[in-house]
Amino acid sequence: MIEAWRIVKAEYADDAFSGEGAVRHGGRWHSEGTRIVYTAESLSVATLELLVHMPRPRIPEYTAIPCSFHERLVHVLEYEKLPENWSDPIAPLSLRRFGDAWARNRVSAVLRVPSAITLVEFNYLLNPEHPDFRSIEIGDPRPFSLDLRLIT
């Protein structure tokens, strides 16, 4: 089993795996209107993803939620299939198009993509609309706080 992590503001913990936030806000791997859930292969990578997207230093209450899934649910996006500028701070449109097509065509319940922050670790995108999504085990939410040294 593969374990992944999602960090959300505590107020959104009950809805963390619905993909509703992604529908309202586009990201590196999807366009607004596409329902996916971003997770990371470790709590540390999830923390870095949170920090890099934080518009300004603030410390709301966060919740960390583990999930696990079988390797057979995962489609792996290989580095050689990525455009040269895939990790640029402003993601190329081709990544969003790829993620949208992956979700729309229900290629897999999980897509493994490289982290644009560390380049050698991975994020897992989950497709709540894929029939196998229900086999993803979502763990119990737990309080999560950032060390103030990370944002000062």
Please describe what this structure looks like:
It contains 3 helices and 8 strands. With 152 residues, it is an alpha+beta fold. It has one domain. The strands form 2 sheets. Strands 1, 3, 7 and 8 form a 4-stranded antiparallel sheet that branches. It starts with a strand and ends in an 8-residue tail after the last strand. 28% of the residues are buried. The model has no long low-confidence stretch (mean pLDDT 92).
Instruction: Identify the overall geometry.
Output: globular
- Please summarize the sheet with the most strands: 4 strands, antiparallel
Counting DSSP E segments of at least 2 residues, the number of strands comes to 8
Question: Helix and strand succession?
Answer: EHEHEEHEEEE
Q: Strand portion, in percent? A: 25-35%
Mean pLDDT, to the nearest integer, reads 92
Total of DSSP H or I helical runs spanning 4+ residues: 3
| Integer-rounded radius of gyration | 15 Å
Class by alpha and beta content: alpha+beta
Q: Which stretches are low in confidence, meaning pLDDT under 50 for 5 or more residues running?
A: none
The total number of structural domains is 1
Oligomer: single chain
Distance between the termini: 37 Å
Question: What is the helix fraction of residues, given as a range?
Answer: 10-25%
Task: Give a brief description.
It contains 3 helices and 8 strands, in the order E-H-E-H-E-E-H-E-E-E-E.
Lay out the secondary structure:
Layout: E1 2-9, H1 20-24, E2 37-40, H2 43-53, E3 62-69, E4 74-76, H3 93-104, E5 110-114, E6 122-126, E7 137-138, E8 142-144
Parallel strand pairs: 4-5
Antiparallel strand pairs: 1-3, 2-6, 3-7, 3-8, 5-6
